[in-house]
Amino acid sequence: MKNGTLRRLSAFAVGLLFSVLMIPTASAQLYYEIGGNLYTFTGWYSQYTGFNVLSDYYWTNSNQHCLSAFDLKSYGVPAGNISSISVKARQAVPAAPRTMTIYMSQRKGNTGIPYPFNRRGYTKVYEKGGWQVPLIGNTEEWVEFELDQPFFWDGESDVYIDFCSYRTGWTGTSVQILGCLPNYTNGTYRYIASGYYWIDALGYCDTDHYNRYYNRPVFRLGVQIGIEESFPDDVDPRRILEAGLVYDGTGGNPNPSITYRQSTGMTVGFTYKITGPVPSTNVVYEARQGGNPNMTRTGTGQGLYTHAFNEAVGSLAGTNGALDLTNAVGGTYRVEATFSLPGYTQTWQKAFIVAFDNDVATAQIRSPL
Questions:
Q1: Cα separation values, 42 from 49, 92, 330, Å
Q2: At 355, which helix (H) or strand (E)?
C-alpha cells in the first residue's frame, strides 16, 4: 500500500476517533438571590400586588423591575451571562395558560424605573405561549424562567427586567410571591424599584406605563460562569494542530490558554493539562504558576478574558508555557482543565488532533461513512 494512502487512512482514523471522543461540557450556572442591600425588608405579597409577575388578576399583567448595580455587587453577582430568572412563590394554583414574555436592558446611573416606563429598546430574552404558574402549596418554591438567550451583564450597570403576560381572561386565583424593599437605607429611598400596569385588554405590553413601586420581587439570577473556550479546543480553528510547530503566541500560533468571564476583584482557581495521544492518558503538558499546578487569578476588569499560560512542564512543554509539537506523535489529545470558585468547580474536557502536514487537509474533510 502506498505511503499517501496510509496517510489518508491514518487521518481518517484519527478524525473518526476524534468524533467519538468529543466531550460536551455543560454550561456552568451559579445562582444568586437578590433581595436588596443590607437594610432591605422582605415579605409575602398577594396576586393583587402590582409587582407580582405571576398574577392572573387582569388580562394583561405588565411590570418592570430594577436591580441596581449596588445590590447586584452586594450579593456577589459577577459580570457574565444571566441565563435564568426566578421568583419565589407559595400558595399558587394554576390558572388558564398565558403568554409570558421577558425583556431586559441595562444602563448606568442608578435612576430606577423612569416615569413613564416602557420596554422599547430592550432585548427580548424569553417568550412562551401556554405558560402557567405551577401548583405550589404552603411550601416556598422558586419559579424559574430559563431564558431563550442569555443576557450579558457588564458588572457596572443597573439591570432592568420587564415581564409582560397576557390572555383573554382573568381569575382571582391566589399566588403569593416574596418581595422586598431593596432601596430603603437609613430612612432614605434611593430609587423606585418597580413599575406596573394592569388592564383587561390585549396589546399593552409595549405602551407607556405610569404606576410605580419602591418594592420589587426577590429575584434569583442564574449566571453562566466558567471556561467558555480553550486553546486547543474541539471546534475550528482550534481543534487541529500541526505536528512540528511550536505554539508559543507568535506567528499566529497561540499559547495554550483558557477563556472565561472575569469580574473585578473576583479570584478564581484553575488547572490545565493535556493528555495523550489516545488511548494513552499520559500528561504531556501541565500548566504551572510558580511551580504549582493549582493556579489562581484575581479579575482586573469585566467580560471575556483569555489567560495564556507562561509556565508548563511535560514532554510537549516548551519555553514560557509554549506547546512544543516539534517531536509530537500524531493523534488525538485531550485538554483537561478545571475552573473553581468557593463551593463550585467546573470540569472542562476537549479533544483535539495533532496532525502531520498532509493529514491536516484530509482531517478537515467530513465524509459520511
A1: 14, 19, 61
A2: strand 344-355
